[in-house]
């Protein structure tokens, strides 16, 4: 796991966008894994700006991490809408190549299985963006999630519902259930980039980066990922014991290595 501590959200957005740009130039038909929430927004802003300068997404495809169950079609906070509004509508990715779990179907297990098959049929995710819950979740894999889990329905813990209430008019509007890629699904991505900013993430960052690998902190499974990059601001990194070592390592990294 590579830990990179940066000055703020814009620098984080630029560095993650660099990795995505390099991937697209090397592999125009790349499969991107998209997160929602606040953390990836600077990445999407940066990619939209680079698209205006010519970065081409026409052969790429994308899979969202998760979706609320039960929000009506077109609800502005459904992740399908958020992904469209914040990212895919702002670049030239083909709408039919943008996928997300469907939280409105009757047969959720069948839809989850179909989603897994669609990811596999696309050749797997090349680069997965991740945010981090204050309870250590990635996707909506809450504490206790199996490290082998695949796409399925999950219940949100109250802390996550409260954290996400800022996107809704009130806490009561935040759904209790979600469909999320599993930890096993996420671990199948060839490269994962996790973004975390702000002091409210510091404890979860410390737990998953330097704590034991344990289901109580789902993101800790990334310690087993062969290519995981963690981009943090100073506040999110403030609880890390080895912060100076991570800074030193990144400052002295050979330029050819990339992320
Ligand atoms: C969203 C997702 C969640 C968020 C996490 C952090 O697709 O999978 O894991 O990434 O809850 O949310 P923010 O970035 O809003 O702090």
UniProtKB/TrEMBL annotation:
Pfam families xref list: Glucosamine_iso
Positions of the Glucosamine/galactosamine-6-phosphate isomerase domain: 12-223
Pathways per UniProt: Amino-sugar metabolism; N-acetylneuraminate degradation; D-fructose 6-phosphate from N-acetylneuraminate: step 5/5
Family the entry assigns: Belongs to the glucosamine/galactosamine-6-phosphate isomerase family. NagB subfamily.
Reactions that this protein is recorded to catalyse: alpha-D-glucosamine 6-phosphate + H2O = beta-D-fructose 6-phosphate + NH4(+)
Active site as annotated: 66 (proton acceptor), 135 (for ring-opening step), 137 (proton acceptor), 142 (for ring-opening step)
Catalytic activity, EC: 3.5.99.6
Top-rank taxon: Bacteria
Record carries keyword Hydrolase: yes
UniProt xrefs under SUPFAM superfamilies: NagB/RpiA/CoA transferase-like
Keyword match Hydrolase: yes
Keywords annotated in UniProt: Carbohydrate metabolism, Hydrolase
Enzyme category, top tier: hydrolase
Signal peptide (residue range): none
GO molecular function, one term: glucosamine-6-phosphate deaminase activity
Reported function: Catalyzes the reversible isomerization-deamination of glucosamine 6-phosphate (GlcN6P) to form fructose 6-phosphate (Fru6P) and ammonium ion.
InterPro entries: Glc/Gal-6P_isomerase (IPR006148), Glucosamine6P_isomerase (IPR004547), Glucosamine6P_isomerase_CS (IPR018321), NagB/RpiA_transferase-like (IPR037171)
Protein name in UniProt: Glucosamine-6-phosphate deaminase
């Amino acid at each position: 796991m590579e830990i990179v501590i940066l000055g703020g959200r814009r620098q984080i957005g630029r560095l993650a966008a660099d990795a995505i740009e390099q991937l697209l130039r090397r592999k125009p038909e790349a499969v991107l894994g998209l997160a929602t929430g606040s953390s990836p927004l600077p990445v999407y802003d940066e990619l939209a700006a680079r698209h205006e300068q010519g970065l081409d997404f026409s052969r790429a495809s994308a899979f969202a991490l998760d979706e609320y169950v039960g929000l009506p079609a077109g609800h502005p906070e459904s992740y399908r809408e958020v992904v469209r509004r914040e990212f895919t509508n702002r670049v030239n990715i083909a709408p039919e190549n943008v996928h997300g779990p469907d939280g409105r179907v009757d047969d959720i297990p069948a839809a989850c299985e179909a989603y897994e098959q669609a990811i596999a049929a696309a050749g797997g995710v090349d680069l997965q963006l991740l945010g981090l819950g204050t309870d250590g979740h990635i996707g909506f894999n809450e504490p206790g999630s199996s490290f082998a889990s695949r796409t399925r329905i999950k219940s949100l813990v109250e802390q996550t519902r409260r954290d996400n209430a800022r996107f809704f008019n009130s806490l009561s509007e935040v759904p209790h259930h979600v469909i999320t890629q599993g930890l096993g699904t996420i671990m199948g991505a060839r490269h994962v980039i996790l973004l975390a900013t702000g002091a409210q993430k510091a404890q979860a960052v410390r737990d998953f980066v330097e704590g034991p690998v344990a289901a109580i902190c789902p993101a800790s499974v990334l310690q087993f990922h062969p290519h995981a990059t963690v981009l943090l601001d100073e506040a999110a990194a403030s609880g890390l014991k080895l912060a100076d070592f991570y800074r030193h390592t990144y400052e002295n990294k050979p330029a050819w290595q990339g992320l």
